[in-house]
Amino acid sequence: MDRIPILRMGQFLLVTIQVDLYDRLALDLEADLVKAVSKTGARGILIDISAVSIVDSFMGRIIGNIGVMSKLLDAETVVVGMQPAVAITLVELGLPLKGVYTALNVERGMDLLKSKIQFEDETIDQEDDNSDDLPE
Amino acid sequence: MPLDISKLLKKKQAVILERWMTNQMADNSMREDLMSNEDLRQESDELISALVKTINDNNINNPDSDDFDQVIEILGGISISRSRQGFSPRETGLFIISLKEALLQVLREEVKDLAQFVDLSLAISRLMDGFSIMTFETFIKGREEVILRQTDEITEISTPVIRVWDGILALPIIGTLDSARTQVVMESLLTEIVESSSSVAILDISGVPTVDSLVAQHLLKTVSATRLMGAECIISGIRPEIAQTIVHLGIDLSDIVTKASLASALQYAFRTMRLEVRKNAAKL
Known about the structure:
Helix content of chain B: 55-70%
Structural class of chain A: alpha/beta
CATH architecture of chain A: 2-Layer Sandwich
Shape of chain A: globular
Oligomer: heterodimer
Order of helices and strands of chain A: EEHEHEHEH
Mean pLDDT of chain A: 86
Number of domains of chain A: 1
Radius of gyration of chain A: 17 Å
Strand order of the largest sheet of chain B: 1-2-3-4-5
Number of domains of chain B: 2
């Protein structure tokens, strides 16, 4: 029984998909990821699909689902390393993956996640500061 | 007395050539700018020699005979080269039609028997008309080849991906966007994004004459694909009339960054990449 390993790195979870996903594997990955996010309290998920050469609508939907689910658990999802052919296929299938961020490679994906989290934390801090100004 | 057409023509070859040249010169659509008289004479001479060599009493009434293969080959070569040089169909047609006239003139001087003359004229006419039709067909085919080649060239050269800055690509689209071209544009853009690891792509549509709902859909597809690759896509060069069309058709471009000119798109790209272009205060 294959499992796609989920690596923890600070506040983030790293997933590298190095095989072509069949449906069972994709569903398992979805379940494992959601569990892992809630267990570790991760703030971001980075999915590297640079080795994936073929996608179908099912896999596109799973990636979209992961994005929406992790958003519910306060984690951002970024998909990195998509090949041109895969991008064209997803667009033709009408799956623009609205719920997830995308980046060109792992490095940029990491930068993106960091900046997103920083931005969120800053806005929260600002809201806290503003709450102090309220009249007693 | 029976008349040997091939002997007659051989004897009169020089005369026919002269007559033919005169006939061609007489026409005021003669294109000396495209072709010198020497070249014309050479072509004419070659064709007459081939014709005189092959024509005889048996095949004169049979224009489809294999004997004329060489003549047809020479004619084909001439009309293809003329269509490439830019001669008009009329000029190309005149070349062969004026030969018929020259032949008939010579026949009239040489053949005294009326019945024989009529028969021969008819035969020659039929033969030459066959050649004329062939010439036209080849001429058109030559033209079509040129058009096809140009179409291919246009498709190839019209989608350059330009690196305007480190991490910024620009893709000026010139001409109509159909599905096939969108595919080419999308592929070359995505490949270039990977190769240059760019984070911003600018699609400039100032060269696109009209945007209908299909073109808009193609643009949206390209933008989505770019986003999936982890780059941002800006559409620039939207002319007022295109903006009107987009609104009238009810196309929703609200989640795409659109700019009026390539310059403002570039400015926006600089801002997203936190780059700044400043004038140097020091005198150069």
